[in-house]
Here is the input.
Amino acid sequence: MTSAVPLLEARLVDRLRTVFALDEATIAKTLHPDFNRYFRGLLGNPAGVNGYLDEVRYLCSAGRLGGHVLDLASGFGVAAICLRALGVEKITGVDLVETKVVTARKLADHVQVNGCNFLLGNAAALPLADASVDGVLIKDAASHFRYPKRVYAEVSRVLKPGGRMVLSDDRNALNEPVRSATERLWEVSETGSPAELAKLGLSVCYTQMRRDYIAQRFPSLDERQADWIAQRTRGYTYVMLDMAVPRLLEDQGMALTPAASCINPANEIVQERLLDPIELCRELSRHGLDASVLPTSVWDVGTAKRRGSRWLGLWRRRLAQMLWSTGIARTRLIKRTADFLIAARK
Ligand SMILES: C[S@@+](CC[C@H](N)C(=O)[O-])C[C@H]1O[C@@H](n2cnc3c(N)ncnc32)[C@H](O)[C@@H]1O
Here is the structure.
């Protein structure tokens, strides 16, 4: 597959590049301090910005996105602005976190983009009418959804008949290194040191968040009891603790059921769910979306050329593409990469 989507708004991309060339203090003041952490690989790195644009171009091309596109869980809005630069007519970004939406709006103002609108909202209950969008992009967000089935039902509801969805994520459950890295991430989120947590944009680990919440909501418990419950309630949100702790106090024998993965107890965002791309396609088909796994941009010869990869790399990619297109070893190829890409049509 080649990335055939042309760049329509070169000046917009230039303005976006100037943002990534700003110093961290200016970005923190103009946009948000967390923008620096999230995009640390792109700051002061024009090649990185080009790579990001290539990635969005590839997704746009693979998903055949156009018309009115919903960027679901749009974060700081960079992908949405890139889509606009690639000529997509209208983008609506939706995100659950207010600081992300506010920052995306600031960024949109800063780069003077039109046709990009950012809304605060939950992907599991979208603030959009039925059959109102031509395409949906879900980039690096599927692994954070608390209620994925509801999200895909919503995607199906807001897509017009024949509309397209493209989803990419780097939490490929079929890839062994991703599995162990994700388990390590969960451990750090639950009990990490301040330095480890800072790298994730967290100041307090989830166990401590639960402990503090329990102590504040249930003052009759002593520190040791609050600690005991906090350590056994991995995956519980504050709302779940509100229900579980009184029941536990009534019935000391009640079993708590900690989750394997973890979740931010305050904002209820999942800290990286592992996703099996093949199973995810089946889930999407249950919501009326005809979905298949496509090669990621890693296998894209066009992207590789732009990134100046060596000829050997290019030929390996060509071979991989051939094997992919004939279905031979497709599952083995999916397992080889951390990232995966799913394209679907309603
Ligand atoms: C890793 S970021 C990716 C952001 C953006 N798509 C990108 O590629 O830069 C994941 C985003 O998902 C958002 N999110 C998580 N659960 C959500 C939900 N239920 N509804 C809307 N946004 C959600 C988070 O707030 C966060 O901005």
User: Anything to note?
Assistant: The longest strand covers residues 159-169. The pocket of S-adenosylmethionine is lined by residues 73-75, 78-79, 94-97, 100, 122-124, 139-141, 144-145, 269 (CB under 6 Å). The first helix runs from residue 10 to 20.
